[in-house]
Amino acid sequence: MPVLMTLAPAIRHTLQGHPENAGRFSRMGRLEELPFYSQLTWLPVTPATPAEVSRTHAPAMLESLREASQAGPVEIDPAPTYLVPGSWEAALDAAGAALTLTRAIRHTPSPLTETPPRPGGESPATRGFALIRPPGHHAGRARPMGFCLLNNLAIAVNEALSQGLSRAAIIDFDGHHGNGTEELFWKDERVGYFSSHQEGAYPGSGSIEEAPHARQRIIHCPLPPRAGDQALSRMAGDLLHPWLERFQPEMLFISAGFDGHWADPLLSLGFTSQGFFELARELIAMADRWCQGRILFILEGGYSPPILAECVAATLAALASLDQPAWPGQPSPYPEPDIRSRLARVNAYHRLSPPSSLDAANGPAKAG
Ligand SMILES: [Zn+2]
User: Fold this and answer.
1) pLDDT value at position 124?
2) In this structure, what CATH number is given to the domain that contains residue 246?
3) Is the pLDDT confidence value at 356 over 70?
C-alpha cells in the first residue's frame, strides 16, 4: 500500500531550551533505514496561502503572528509559545504540508500544485502522514497557544469540507487536550472530535461532560497517568469503533501526538511505540471500513527526538500494512491501572453501546 508523505521540519522556527524546537526532528533521518521506505511517496510542500488559513483563523490573528514573527524572538503566551524570524513562514509550510496531503487523498488537484504522482499500476493512495512542526491542536480561531501557531489539522479539515467532504472525524491521541481544534468545530455538525489526553495536564480542559451540546460528536476521554497501552486498545474497541460506526465520517483526520509515550519528558501516560502501532492499525482498519480508506495523520507533540522517530516509524509501519513495527521499542516500566470503569462512563455519557470489551467476560470493572 503506498503511503503519501509530506515533510515540514521548520528549521528556522527554533528556540534553544524550548521543548518544541528544531531538534525534535533530529532523528527523523533514520526513517530512511526502514525496510519499507520505498513505499513512502514524498510530495513537495507548497506553503499555505493567507486565504487558505483565513478559513480557519481570524485575519487579525494572522497579521499579528506575521508581524510578531518578524520582530521576534518573543513569547506570546505562558506555555510558552514563541515566535522568531522565520516562524510565520514555518507555520505556513506546516499548514501547506497538511493541505497538500488532504488534496492528494481527496483526489482533488490543488490550484497551486500539480496533481501528485501516482505509483504506476497501484491503487490511489488514501493514506498519508504529514511530518510537520510546529504543532497545531491548541491554536484556536483567534489565538495561537501551547506551542501551536496555526491549527494545521483544522485548516486541512476546512479545506476538505470546502471541497465537498460532508462529514469528517478527528481523532486526537496527543497526550494533551486539543482545545483549539475543539473550539474551531464546537458548533460544526459536520465534524466529530474525539480526544484522549492525560487528565489535569495542559491546558486543563477536556473533562468527560464538558460538551453536553455535542454528545456523540465531541468526545473526551481523559486518562489517568500511566494509563498504558491497554488504555489505547480498549479505547479503540469500546469508544472509537462504536462512535465511528454511528457518526459515519468520510475521512479520518488524526492529530498524531506522541507525547503520551512513557519516556516523553512532558507527560506520563505510559504508552509505547508498540501501542501507537496497534492504535494506528485500528484507525486504518476503521478508515478502510467506513471512509474508503481515507486517513491522514498529522503530527502534533512528542518531545524526545529518538522516541518521536521511533513512534513515527511505528505508525508508518502500520500505514504500510506491516504486521509489526520495524524497530522494537522498550516496554513501559510502569504498571497499568484498570480504566474500564472510566471508559464505561464515557461510553454511557455518549450512549455509544454496544461496547466490545466492557462485557462480563472481562470481569467487573474496578478503579478508574
Ligand atoms: Zn501534546
Assistant:
1) 74
2) 3.40.800.20
3) no
